[in-house]
Amino acid sequence: EPEVTQTPSHQVTQMGQEVILRCVPISNHLYFYWYRQILGQKVEFLVSFYNNEISEKSEIFDDQFSVERPDGSNFTLKIRSTKLEDSAMYFCASSGLNPHNEQFFGPGTRLTVL
Amino acid sequence: AQTVTQSQPEMSVQEAETVTLSCTYDTSENNYYLFWYKQPPSRQMILVIRQEAYKQQNATENRFSVNFQKAAKSFSLKISDSQLGDTAMYFCAFSNKNTGNQFYFGTGTSLTVIP
Description:
The complex is a heterodimer of chains A (114) and B (115). Chain A is mostly beta strands.
């Protein structure tokens, strides 16, 4: 059964450094998402991406964040200058033609900013 | 604003027994979807069950069923005949058909099935 995959599973970085989190969505899906979960808190929406552009973003998704689909398979989240409060689990998700049917989630990348 | 509340951070149930996980939500919209996702330890979230708000009939998937009370904005998950593999974090989520594709999640309930 197709799955969303994410790499790396754990990323440790120094404050101020750039990080890129990678995701491979399910191949025939059309919508792509990033969510994050700070330890002990809710899973929060960051951004959705459709037809090669951002379709929706939350207040969290400020100028420090960007997303890209550099080829036909990868979907990346870049944080330009990481802050301590960016430490969280980051989940990628994808969905088909009707995004309200189901979003398929990856296993997450745990980002630790020191 | 849409919010989802799960008031039970942790629950436990004996194997083969039934357990109900609570979820309430707040929205002014009429056309929306509700979900329960399961996240086993160190694994990704997978969809357990989905309910469309305009359908009065409660969704059922094998041992999993919901009690959807639209007026009360309540969406509880019942797990019958609990199995050890049901041990996981369970997240309730909400999606609004008319105002975007994002999912709103609750904080989760950690369920442990005791042998």
